[in-house]
Amino acid sequence: MIGELNQRVRILAQTRYPDGGGGYTEVWNVIATVWADVAPRAGSNVFAADALQSRVEHRVTIRRNAAVLVGMRATVGTLTLTIHAILDDGSPLITLICEELP
User: Fold this and answer.
1) Residue 49's domain is classified under what CATH number?
2) What is the pLDDT of residues 39-60, one digit of tens each?
3) Is 70 left (phi over 0), alpha (psi -120 to 50) or beta?
4) How many domains does the chain have?
5) Bridge partners, residue 7, by sequence
6) Pairwise CA distance, residues 57 & 45, whole Å
7) pLDDT tens for residues 74-93?
8) Non-local CB neighbours of 30 within 8 Å, separated by 6+ positions
9) What is the pTM of this model?
10) Cα–Cα dist 102/83, whole Å
């Protein structure tokens, strides 16, 4: 499986900075660049905000990395994914269940 980790993925964490007006500015910073196997997992259409929206889930397999947490993002080329779950079976690899951002 490690030989199949053939795509570069950047893992991003959110940082919020106060804007001085009671709100904040949201910035996504790269915390790691890793090799991964990225594969579409499922797709669906949902009706939201009075419009039909397409949702695509991806499975991203990477080497174990304790810094990766649910809620972070992963980017592959121009594709941006939100990490919704981390599957850890104790092997040297973990699987991230992600949803593609529009």
Assistant:
1) 2.40.10.270
2) 988 766 665 666 666 778 999 9
3) beta
4) 1
5) 36
6) 12
7) 999 999 999 999 999 999 99
8) 10, 11, 12
9) 0.82
10) 14
